[in-house]
Amino acid sequence: MRTLAHISDLHFGREDPVVVEGLLRSLEEAKADVIVVSGDLTQRAKKKQFRAAKAFLAEMPKVPRVVVPGNHDVSTTNLFERVVRPLKRYRRFISQDLTPFWSDAEVAIAGINTVRLMSTKDGRMNRVQVEKACGQFATAAGAAVKVVVTHHPIDVAADDLKHPTLTRSKMAMARFAECGVDLFLSGHLHVGLTLSSSVRYPLAGYSAVVVHAGTAVSTRTRKEANGWNLIRVSEGGIFVQRMVWGGKRFRRGDMETYRKTPIGWERQAAESVS
Ligand SMILES: [Fe+2]
Ligand SMILES: [Fe+2]
Prior knowledge:
Blueprint: E1 2-7, H1 17-30, E2 34-38, H2 47-59, E3 65-68, H3 79-84, H4 88-94, E4 101-103, E5 107-111, H5 127-138, E6 145-149, H6 169-178, E7 183-186, E8 193-196, E9 209-212, E10 227-233, E11 237-245, E12 250-261, E13 264-272
Helix pairs in contact: 2-4, 5-6
The chain binds fe (ii) ion (FE2) (2 copies).
């Protein structure tokens, strides 16, 4: 069993400092094995905002982390930078690595950059990126739960007609089914959500768990309080615990359980934990 802390959409520049402190405390208590950050570390990709994001990452528990950029991490004010080096500041302050990968005997996590120059809002994934992630997974232990991290979601709720999935998501999902991806983590929409991939992508014998995180610390909340996900994974089970800001600290919210079955990961039950 491994525990992943999945945080997203920090939006430094629009952060609530009280929630930032609360998140750091909550992450300490969670004792996660790995921390995943699924993009939008800053509000407008300004140096000051990246410095604040970097300082925050340095204060997080010293465990492995997999971090990917979001559309807000691309400069919108400097056209030259935007065209020539769109993620220059992200690379400078956060990480040079836009294809981060971490694995041990129980979990393998591949981060993919879905930010594109010409479509700042909606993300995209290409075949090279998908093949690279599958190649990384091929090096992992056979029993490891395989996790893909993107900023933009590869899947959204079937009744969500407002938000698109990332471009080329159908191609990506078909290949990820072949290389056995179990879990997709993303952000961007600022609303926490858990889905089964087989509703939108019916593929024989395959259904992955798709988890969106809300915004962890920013004031850009939509419909719900700040939140993040505490996810336990093992060969037979994926448990998604929603962590919700309660005004003074993060509290445990709903938990969803998925079990591995011959037709993929199946949702078991939702239970509310106060
Ligand atoms: Fe965001
Ligand atoms: Fe975003």
